[in-house]
Amino acid sequence: MITPRWGGWTSDLNASAELFGRYYPQHADQMRTAATIARVPSTDPEVLSTLIDDLGPWLASEYAAAHGEKTPRPAH
Predict the structure, then answer these.
(1) What is the band of 2 on the pLDDT scale with cuts at 50, 70, 90?
(2) So what's the pLDDT on residue 76?
(3) CA 63/CA 13 separation, integer angstroms
(4) N or C: which end of the chain has fewer CB within 10 A?
(5) Distances (CA, A) of 64 to 25, 56, 59, 75
(6) What percent of the chain shows pLDDT beyond 90?
(7) What is the rounded distance in angstroms from the CA atom of residue 35 to the CA atom of residue 38?
(8) Burial (CB count within 10 angstroms: exposed 0-12, middle 13-18, buried 19+), residue 2
(9) What's the mean per-residue pLDDT of the chain?
(10) How far apart are CA 59 and CA 50, in angstroms?
């Protein structure tokens, strides 16, 4: 969602989270948390709930708004 606007690419999770925060400041802390959890997993229910129940659905809706709904692949 930010790559085209930013005009670059990075695989550095910390850098990605910081760049994300420039475009979506209201979700910057959550994305920083997601970047941390990607490297150091957590079992904290509050942290996981924030990412799964709040950030995840919001990201999905932002993606759909920008790129449209994906057509499900046929089952084999």
Answers:
(1) low
(2) 77
(3) 19
(4) C
(5) 19, 12, 9, 22
(6) 57
(7) 5
(8) middle
(9) 88
(10) 12
- Report whether pLDDT(28) > 80: yes
- Which of 27, 24, 30 minimizes the C-alpha distance to 49? 30
End-to-end CA distance of the chain: 30
* DSSP secondary structure, 9-68, as one string: ----HHHHHHHHHHH-GGGHHHHHHHHHHHHS----HHHHHIIIIIIHHHHHHHHHHHH-
Question: What residue spans define the domains of the chain?
Answer: 3-66
Q: Assign 6 to helix, strand or coil.
A: helix
What number is the average pLDDT over the span 49-64? 94
